[in-house]
Design goal:
Order of helices and strands: HHEHEHEHEHEEHEH
CATH class: Alpha Beta
Radius of gyration: 16 Å
CATH topology: Rossmann fold
Length: 213
């Protein structure tokens, strides 16, 4: 059975994965691996949101991208994970303002839009796990999981913290970040790091599902 090894690990808590409802925002290098991990772990109630199509530059890090160049990411991924729900939309601050998040148990943020990430933090911090910068890095052992105010070593994360402070936001929520210094100026990327970010996000979801009463 495909779930037998996960059941050995989680025991009677495995059934909680079936009931857990996930919203995954962004299915690029981080999000697509997170989706694969969630699905293989036994979580099926997943909604993914993205607006983009695959191009050749995605193929070094994004799941299934080599099979679907030029095609919609969310529609392509649904062909590989048929139980998921898809929303084809750009996640920006306006979308966040109008979307209803209450029915989801966790919101996994794997988008790049800074203003949207800030809006998500303000609206959904109790359920949010947010990915910071995974590009420009080579060492997955320097990836950390902590609350927003513990994060460091990431210029993108520093901008998020600064903007949240300006808005008077002082709540805590979970972020995945790297303390490794950037290795290039451009947005070079390495699957060993982007995938590890996605796996860390998936782990947070599985742990939250197991802890849910």
């Amino acid at each position: 059975m495909r779930d037998s090894r996960t059941k050995l690990l989680l025991g009677d808590d495995f059934h909680k994965l079936k009931e857990f409802k996930v919203l995954l925002l962004g299915v690029g290098g981080v999000g697509s691996v997170c989706l694969d991990c969630l699905y293989r772990s036994g979580i099926r109630n997943i909604t993914i949101v993205d607006f983009d199509t695959y191009d050749a530059t995605n193929q070094n890090r994004q799941m299934w991208s080599e099979l679907h160049e030029g095609e919609s990411k969310v529609q392509s991924l649904q062909s590989h994970y048929p139980d998921i729900e898809i929303i084809e939309a750009r996640v920006d601050k306006e979308w966040v303002a109008h979307f209803e998040f209450d029915s989801y148990d966790i919101i996994l943020d794997a988008i790049d839009d800074r203003e949207a990430k800030i809006a998500l933090a303000q609206k959904c911090y109790k359920k949010l796990v947010s990915s910071f910068g995974s590009a420009k890095r080579l060492d997955p052992t320097q990836i950390k999981v902590g609350n927003i105010w513990q994060s460091k070593g990431d210029r993108f994360g520093a901008k998020i913290r600064y903007e949240l402070k300006k808005r008077g936001f002082n709540k805590k929520y979970t972020v995945v970040y790297s303390t490794e210094s950037a290795k290039c100026k451009e947005k070079g990327s390495f699957m060993g790091v982007t995938a590890a970010f996605g796996l860390a996000m998936c782990s947070q979801a599985v742990k939250k599902a197991v802890e849910k009463r």
